[in-house]
Amino acid sequence: MKVIRRVVKWASVGTSALFILVLIGLLLSPWLLNVELVKQNILSRVERQIGGRLAYQKVDILFLPRPYLNIQQAHLTIPDSMESSLTSLKVYPQLLPLLQGDIQFSRIDIEQPRIHVNIPHRAPAETSAAAETTYDHIKEQIISALALPLFHTPGLIVRLIDGELTVISKTRPVFIFEDFTARIRRSPENIHLKILCTSNVWKHISLTAQVNATTLNGSLHAQMKRFRPHLLSEFFLPDSPLRLVKSQIDLDVGCEVADKNLIRVNLQGSNPSFVFRRGPQKTTLRGKQLKAVVRVDDHSLLVSLGALNLVNPQLNLSGSFYYNSREPEVRLDVSGIGVEVVALRKKALALVGDVHVVGQIFEIITGGHVPAVTVNARARSFAELNDVKKFIVKGTMSEGRLHIPDADLESEQAKGEVVWS
Question: What's the CA angle centered on 90, arms 36 and 39, to 5 degrees?
Fold first, then answer.
């Protein structure tokens, strides 16, 4: 017992002595350090870390409760990318390296940033290739941001507090993110990110992500309340003949990147509501549930639909779509339960009636109730999917209405199993 007491006693003494030495160091810091030189070194390092230019009205270096640089009413500019005003920027250097004349950051607090990001504008007459260019630009901006020294300082924590982010195209605000709070932490291997905000694109989002700073492999999880995807389609696909003009869905998204060319996305949505417009005609789809998994690599796409439960029109769908550009190969497998043909036919013709195979199917099947149906197609290209001969439709029907155009036959009370190929 005496040995234990002696160890505890000396440990307490050592801890107290260390605390006193640190406190003395803090109190003597203004005299031990060249304050102006430290200021300039920290400001220069901040600019290098963020890859931009920093202007400010006032800057102070404070030593209690721990040394930090307080930059007030600052303006940050990253050429050809973004600019931001800041109420304050607080930079906390690591204490021991600072006393040794080396500046290493442990934390950066950015308070009330008002960030403006510019993305390329394209005229309405431009093709979808321009939309791909815009997407590539955004992707390049993200990769460039992750390459900044800011994200490659182990142990560094960056916090954005009460921020606002506005995405601008040709001087017009396109996407606005408010009540923006973010925390970025750099571990030895990964960049850890957490974001909370409101937006015109959603009512609220909670996002967490982890990205390997070298390989860019990682994972992301986002929960979006009242997500409005039509705002994205209006910007990226303004020339589409079928336009999504109003939408809302509560969406849970999980994303994994195994390497730069393999991405897996899990989607779970509830209460989806979509309004489409083709010409002057509007079509509404409303549902209860959406479950899907999307897998993309450098040569293939797989979409697995676990469940799509619609109430308008009444329809329960599941299935998969697979495309491989290397083979080449296209596969479509869909199962439907509880299909009301009249309602579905009206919606389908309004949305994709210009697709030849859809028009042909509903030229034959014009009404009735289908308790269960499967649709299968095999092709070597997307163009071949427009050939009705590539499809096999099997189902059971009650009180069905069928029209056989080649034989000019009509059936008003079709019942039983139907196979069409």
Answer: 10
Q: Tell me the average pLDDT of the chain.
A: 79
| Nearest residue to 350 via CA among 272, 293, 260, 280 | 280
CB of 385 within 8 A of CB of 344? Answer: no
Determine the straight-line distance between the first and last CA of the chain, rounded to whole angstroms: 89
Tell me how far apart the alpha carbons of residues 410 and 420 are, in angstroms, rounded to a whole number: 16
Half-sphere exposure of 235 (CA within 13 A, CB side): 19
Contacts for 297 with CB less than 8 Å, ≥ 6 apart? 261, 262, 263
CA distances from 355 to 221, 330, 344, 367 (A): 35, 17, 15, 20
Is the confidence at residue 24, as pLDDT, over 50? no
Per-residue b or e along 135-166, where b marks 16 or more CB atoms closer than 10 Å to that residue's CB: eeeeeebeeeeeeeebbebeebbbbbbebbbb
pLDDT-based confidence at residue 134 (cuts at 50, 70, 90): low
pTM of the model: 0.78
The more confident residue out of 345 and 1 is 345
Structure tokens at 371: 């308790």
CB half-sphere exposure, 336, CA atoms < 13 A: 21
| CA proximity to 342, closest of 367, 312, 372, 305 | 367
Give the least confident one: 83-92, 148-157, 179-188, 282-291.
148-157
Q: Which of 338, 342, 267 is nearest to 309 (CA)?
A: 338
Residues 6+ apart with CB under 8 A from 277: 242, 243, 245, 283
Instruction: Give me 298's structure tokens.
Output: 């450098």
pLDDT digits (tens, 9 = 90+) for 73-120: 988 887 777 888 989 988 888 776 666 666 677 888 999 999 998 877
